[in-house]
């Protein structure tokens, strides 16, 4: 598993701006060419410059896996069409009051965990378009924005350090991948902000320390 440090114009919260699965990555339209090249080489996938609702916080607003991508209702028509054209999978716009889909949903190809208050509005979309086997609602400790508190793919998962042993057991049973607690960017527990990737590689925020990277490496191994 390749792990590289990255930033977006000096901002180490790379997981806010970049979305990736095993098929494609999305970066902001104004992303520096060196970031585009790093994403492409580390994750070994095509990279699409895109905005969501004319903003660059792509990974907060969308959620997806290798089978599908869900977009918030505030997405522009031209953005939807571009994603639909470039991604070989399901693409759907979710008509719900929740727009930060990436913060309220945690998914891989097998399962999904959804913010309890968002569950009724999102569960069917997640089940139908992301084609997961299991959809559950829940918290990570007392954190309802489960998508912000962890990063999960088909290899492993890194979770907020406040997660309890019971949380970890539940996540292991749900996602069926290696799970452990950790931090990014020198102690940040909201993992999504500083970690993005796929089954080939990971990008971490540039402030992520050596010990943090070692823990991440142990969780995700060699894929």
Descriptive account of the structure:
- The chain is an alpha/beta fold and 223 residues long.
- It has a single domain, classed as L-arginine/glycine Amidinotransferase, Chain A (5-stranded Propeller), CATH 3.75.10.10.
- The chain is 30% helix and 26% strand.
- It has 8 helices and 15 strands.
- It has helices at residues 14-17, 33-43, 58-61, 77-86, 101-104, 119-129, 165-175, 210-220; strands spanning 2-6, 19-20, 25-28, 47-50, 63-64, 68-72, 90-94, 105-107, 111-114, 134-137, 150-152, 156-159, 178-181, 195-197, 201-205.
- A 3-stranded mixed β-sheet has the order 1-15-14, with helices on one face. A 3-stranded mixed β-sheet has the order 2-3-4. The protein has a 3-stranded mixed β-sheet with strand order 5-6-7, sandwiched between helices.
- The longest helix is centred in the N-terminal third of the chain and has 11 residues, at 33-43.
- The chain starts with a strand and ends with a helix.
- The model has no long low-confidence stretch (mean pLDDT 97).
- InterPro entries: eIF6 (IPR002769).
- Pfam families: eIF-6 (PF01912).
- This is Translation initiation factor 6.
Overall CATH architecture: 5-stranded Propeller
Radius of gyration: 16 Å
Report the count of strand segments: 15
Count the DSSP helices: 8
Average of the residue pLDDT scores = 97
Shape from CA axes? Answer: globular
The CATH homology group name: L-arginine/glycine Amidinotransferase, Chain A
Describe the largest sheet.
3 strands, mixed
CATH C-level class is Alpha Beta
Helix content: 25-40%
Secondary-structure element series: EHEEHEHEEHEHEEHEEEHEEEH
CATH topology: L-arginine/glycine Amidinotransferase, Chain A
Q: Provide the domain count.
A: 1
GO biological process, one term: cytosolic ribosome assembly
Pfam families: eIF-6 (PF01912)
Organism: Ignisphaera aggregans
Family: Belongs to the eIF-6 family.
